Amino acid sequence: MKKIILLAGPTASGKSSTALGWAKQYGGEIDNSDSMQVYAELSDLSARPSAAELALCPHHLYGVLTGDNPCSAEYWRDMALTVIEGIWQRGAVPIVVGGTGLYFKSLVTGLSTVPEIDPDIRREIRETVTAETAPDAHARLMKLDPLSAERLAPGDRQRISRALEVILSTGKSLKYWQDIPPTGGLCLRDDVEIEKNITVMDRKKLYERCDRRFRIMMEDGNAVEEVRALMALNYAPSLPVMKSLGVPQIASYLREEISREEAITLSQTATRQFAKRQMTWFRNQCGDWNQISL
Fold this sequence. Notes:
Layout: E1 2-8, H1 15-26, E2 28-32, H2 51-54, E3 59-60, H3 73-89, E4 93-98, H4 101-108, E5 110-111, H5 119-131, H6 134-144, H7 146-149, H8 157-170, H9 174-178, E6 183-184, E7 192-200, H10 203-219, H11 222-232, H12 247-254, H13 260-285, E8 290-293
Parallel strand pairs: 1-4, 1-7, 2-3, 2-4, 7-8
Antiparallel strand pairs: 5-6
């Protein structure tokens, strides 16, 4: 039986240090499942493991893509499965750690198969949704695909964009594709033992950790330089890497649109809001997972 250990949880909850302890205990190798830590340009802001931590055991899928190569859940799942099989072949235990719930879902239960999206349609949708107001984009989706629009908040640009590109590219609602039974999940295999864990932490304590971590990032200067280098690449604003926590706020600071302190405050607020959304998602989707109190 092949064993795999999963460790999910909100940002700043101590997942990385816990995973390192387990890697030492079980002879494991760590596989990243954080949607921002896959990007080479985001080391400090995504809180990727330090060089010292990376040296303690093999780590995989950290900084493996450039920001102009957006990573979908399916693309990550395919990379992760290749890594995991390699870890098993070496006689080690894969420890998958991160905060992106959809990545875990794609790995465990699989994904519904959506045909390839026409790249021209994807580009046009991303540019249009970025330029117009979120309610306008939602209203456009309501005309084309009311089933999807009714399930999405009017301010959820990312999911609205996804639903629009699917209906325009395939002629069918995203819900149609999502209703097709998922494939490719590890839960469908009888030769794999999956240990599912999730970190839980008092909300006030977690928010304090989020605030403190971001201020430290700003004080050491690495976060600012990271965004400065990212801006020099002239990536499209619609790319996920350009919307990562702290990137828009620090970019505004570098353009002298807001003060340094405002950039910190706005980024801390965005991080807390993101952590809250993560906790809600994991609570709703991972109710049967082992809870690890930190």
